[in-house]
Write a structure and sequence with these properties.
The N terminus is likely disordered. It contains eleven helices and eleven strands. The protein folds into two domains: 132 residues, NADH Oxidase, CATH 3.40.109; 128 residues, NADH Oxidase, CATH 3.40.109. The strands form three sheets. It has a five-stranded mixed beta sheet with strand order 3-4-2-1-11. A four-stranded antiparallel beta sheet has the order 5-8-10-9, with helices on both faces. Strands 6-7 form a two-stranded parallel ribbon. The protein has 351 residues and is of the alpha+beta class.
């Protein structure tokens, strides 16, 4: 007899009698909890299921309307985020005992179709996967101060293995490499500070603490109070925001480890795999009781990205993370499943 899937914290229990369509909705609810640049959520899903045969497909698309045009002109960061969402989706399906096979970038004529999951058969979730799936709704990007406490060498080795499981690479930076990585980030931040197009992108996705939007980044995520959050978008457009400066100054003094996630190439498939590897690292970090902060400014300019890759000894760096110990924050809001999923289901046997 099929039993109820153990609930991930913050997500509903999947009932034992749930059909494939409901299972897909439940799995997409996990997918949308992936991180993305300014919480832009640049993904959409199309699914077709046959309840009688227990088969179907889920297609994962890049939503170009949610790509930040100036901050992410090649959509590299958006594709990375979609790779993270794809990992969450696979973990949830596996947890619901739904077997699947994955095809990445299956149609060159449809470049925004990033992946297709073909649903068929049954699978059994092992404890290692359950730990990651359970961390999905608890993972949140850390933007507050890190406390004392650090990951062990054994834990860092586990993170390297998690990235490799998806075909990604992870480089743990030593103290000297960390200083060089921060220098590349400082150069990029200085350059971005005078870029009106960058400021416009940031302001467009900045939300006040009173805003009920289901996307974008609220002020409280940066530790801002109500009045500061109400002014932040206007400050960004005027070039007077202190958030980035405060975070940069704090970053220089805090404990923790810097790690760089890399890919095997710059093609869509390689970046998707890096995104899935990144998400495995983030989920394992969460499961271990630690937090992660994104430090991606250096990756947005060709010269500083090259410099970061040289420091990390990676040809294709995709993400720089600061890992450490911090009090957990609530996750930022996400769009409802109904807004991101187009689902077609067959309920009756054809005559």
């Amino acid at each position: 007899m099929k039993t109820a899937v153990p609930p991930s914290r913050g997500l509903a229990l999947l009932a034992p009698e749930a059909g494939l369509a409901e299972t897909v909705r439940w799995s997409v609810a996990h997918a949308v909890l992936a991180p993305s640049l300014m919480n832009s959520q640049p993904w959409s899903f199309r699914a077709r299921v046959d309840e009688h045969s227990g088969t179907g497909t889920i297609e994962v698309y890049l939503d170009r309307d949610r790509v930040l045009r100036h901050l992410d002109p090649t959509a590299r960061e958006a594709v990375l985020a979609c790779g993270a969402a794809l990992l969450n989706l696979r973990l949830a399906l596996h947890g619901a005992s739904v077997g699947s096979s994955l095809r990445l970038c299956p149609d060159p004529a449809t470049p925004d179709l990033l992946a297709v999951l073909v649903l068929r058969g049954r699978s059994r979730e092992d404890s290692r996967e359950w730990v990651l799936r359970d961390a999905v709704p608890r993972r949140a990007t850390c933007r507050q101060r890190f406390e004392s406490g650090d990951l062990s060498d054994e834990a860092l080795d586990h993170l390297v293995a998690e990235a490799a499981y998806e075909g990604a690479l992870l480089s743990v930076l030593d103290e000297e490499q960390g200083r060089a990585a921060r220098e590349a980030g400082a150069i990029a931040r200085t350059r971005a500070a005078g870029d009106e197009d960058y400021a416009t992108d940031l302001a467009t996705w900045t939300r006040s603490n009173l805003d009920d939007a289901v996307d974008g980044l609220p002020g409280w995520a940066h530790g801002q109070g109500l009045f500061a959050s109400l002014e932040e978008a206007a400050r960004l457009r005027r070039g007077t925001s202190t958030v980035a400066d405060d975070e940069a100054a704090r970053e220089l003094q805090e404990p923790g480890h810097l790690v760089v996630i890399g890919s095997s190439g710059e093609d869509r498939e390689a970046v998707l795999r890096a995104g899935s590897g990144l998400q495995r690292v983030l989920l394992r970090t969460t499961a271990l009781g630690f937090a992660a902060r994104f430090l991606d400014e250096a990756l947005r300019y060709a010269d500083t990205r090259t410099a970061l890759g040289r420091v990390a000894q990676l040809d294709h760096p995709q993400c720089l993370l600061h890992l450490g110990c911090a009090e957990p924050l609530p996750t930022t809001r996400r769009r409802p499943v109904a807004d991101v999923l187009a689902l077609t289901e067959t309920k009756e046997v054809a005559p």
